[in-house]
Amino acid sequence: MSLNMFSLFCCDRVVSFTRPDFESSMPAPETARSSNRSTLQSAPDVQRCSYTYLSPENTQEGRRLLDSITWPETPPLPKPFSLNLTTNGAKSSFSIVLRDGGWRVGDELMVRIQLRDYNGNPKKSGGDYLTSRLHNRMLGAGVVGQVQDHLNGTFTAVFPLLWNGTADVEVLLVQTSESITVLKRVTEEQPDRIWFSSDFRFGSVTETSTCNVCLDADKAPLCNFTDLHTGEQWFCYKPKTLDCNTRVSHVVVFRGLKINKEERLLFQRGINMKVLIKALGKATATILPKTGETKTITTEPSGYYYGNEWRPLGGPKVHQFNNASVIACLKGKQVHMFGDSTTRQFYEFITKKLPNLLKFDKHSTPQCGPFLAVDHTNDIMMTFRCHGPPLRNYKINLSQLQYVANELDRLNGGPNTVVVVGVWAHFGSFPMEVYYQRLMAIRRAVGRLLNRAPGTKVIIRTANMKDMNVDSSLYNSDWYSLQRDKVLRAVFKHPGVLLLEAWEMVQAHYLPHNLHPPPGIIKLMVDMILSNTCPENGG
């Protein structure tokens, strides 16, 4: 396949991601029909639609990036289907690899994992999604391990030993390889399984129409709402009688998924999804104090917990902020937050801590904002605005639906400006290229902001693991989130940007996984934001 084109087969059409001239001007919203511009050869009666990149560099970099995160091949489902031949967490096990002389701080601990099926037979293929954690609840300590898939049913997990005392090993089967086979197929065949709609209104006439990243132009004429600045595509079917420019709202519409009852058995929480794997022998290691030279740690996480505090390995030290030190840190500053509800949590947490903040959000939607809070005495301003489509939300006015890149281009920036961006949770059901395109638009805007205002603090929030059931898995599983998290990290490898390590902070913590992490973890993340903003402060 040419590097100038990404292609995804979906539903009854082909979605082709093609590349135009650099930052070429986009047409204003208009009625559009299928152009059939793709060069792909495909089956008859397959509908094509184009997805536009902004620059010639995007395609080559994007292909390298997406190839680099390719998941191991997963096995096809047994025919006839037999759950007994699939991975079973309760039958699987792990064991700690003993070390001569025991372990000391600075060493590494290795764990061997053997997956088995429901019959107790060893698995012979890879592709399962496992996570691992080393922790001591009494010490408030925890760190994630690096898991390696050996593609034969066995895995190893390696942990850096960062504290003195005992450490308990935990291995979690997040998704089986067979369920990932289903998740891959669902994305390929039903990438539009979450749909959206908009109201079009003129005078007393209102019509509702279906909208999405890509629509079948053979069904009806399309309204093209591609953003003129970022190039982000968005389409709606043209209303029967009203013009495209009468669109006034946006809302999510969930559609049913086409998976059979056997496939649903692969998503049973506590059985073959989000289930702890038992230990063969001891699951606890004793770690002695460091003496002299120790083995060089080859697997370094971004940080770890100790004393219930997050300690980054590299990056700014995290201080603990109380109400007074939050005010001292933010005095004279503007804090702008953009993204989804997991970023809105930061806005809500901080504004509750500042008693003098006046909120100006009377006519804003609870989910999306926009929110504005001002402390005139201390010259503090805070804002939050949700990102643009695809946004799964209750009905909102179209004026409130703005792309993050456009909002960043409206900021003056400077040493007293802090920007926090978190965009990930609403993209799980779409092809990876859609998410990559969004991140690239934001990265360009961040680059422009830092160029005109080098002192601006920019913080990018990573994804995090969540609680899952069968339905949420098919829309937004941890496996989907992991792939997007890898892309985000690759796109924002920039010395002027801080990655807020939500992924490891949630995984290493003892609290249950949740799409919206509980207040205790949010407090630690806010401390990280403030420590980057005011490295000399803390209270």
Give a short overview.
Residues 310-534 form the NXPE C-terminal domain. Pfam families: Neurexophilin (PF06312), NXPE4_C (PF24536). With 539 residues, the chain is α+β, with helices and mostly antiparallel strands.
Structure characterization notes:
The protein is α+β, with helices and mostly antiparallel strands and 539 residues long. It contains 11 helices and 30 strands. Helix content is 22%, strand content 30%. Strands 3-15-16-14-13-17-27 form a 7-stranded antiparallel sheet, with no helix packed on it. It has a 7-stranded mixed sheet with strand order 24-25-26-23-28-29-30, with helices on one face. Strands 6, 8, 9, 12, 18 and 20 form a 6-stranded mixed sheet that branches. Mean pLDDT is 87; it is low at 1-50.
